[in-house]
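User: What would this chain look like folded?
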Amino acid sequence: MAGEGVLATLEAGWQALAKVDAPKAVIGGLAMTAWKHARYTRDADVLVAIEAGRVDELVTALSVAGFHARHSPPLRLIDGQGIVQFTFQPADALMPFQFDVLLVTGEFQRAAVVRAVPWPLRGGKTNVRVVRPDDLVVIKLLAGRIIDRADAAMILRENRNDIDFMRLHHEVNRQGIAADYREIWQEAFPDEALPNLG
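Assistant: Here's the prediction, encoded as structure tokens.
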């Protein structure tokens, strides 16, 4: 479950990134919390639609707010995904938390950020935006780890009424992950026929 420290880290990071003119959305473990599946995490992950050439704006905005870049130079590429990792120690926290800024890669991620919906943090003190559950399923399946696949099945099961299945099925076909999707569908809904993905 998301503790106060990681939520405070997200809140501070989100407010700092407000100074950077770029759409953004929460992904990762905290997005799972937003979509009815709280699990423990010490990382706050935000996907930002910004070009690599503007990374210095991100670093400056977050550094002023007390975040510390973990690497020099700060931008790293992991499996083709640009990422800038920071640490942040909220007031009263005994240890720092991680804040990862991922740079949008490709049309799907850019559209997912635009489609993101409001999520009130910490009793509504701060409103952030979180990717929709259908987009989160795709993000999790593309990540491909066992825990991500389990997360994707849980998102399907817990958020069925909020998912745009037409768009989700189009995207899993487009991304070439239809077989993986069928497997997590079976895990989420073992008594239901597999969807016809076209």
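The CA atoms of residues 118 and 151 lie 21 Å apart. If you want, I can go into more detail on any region.
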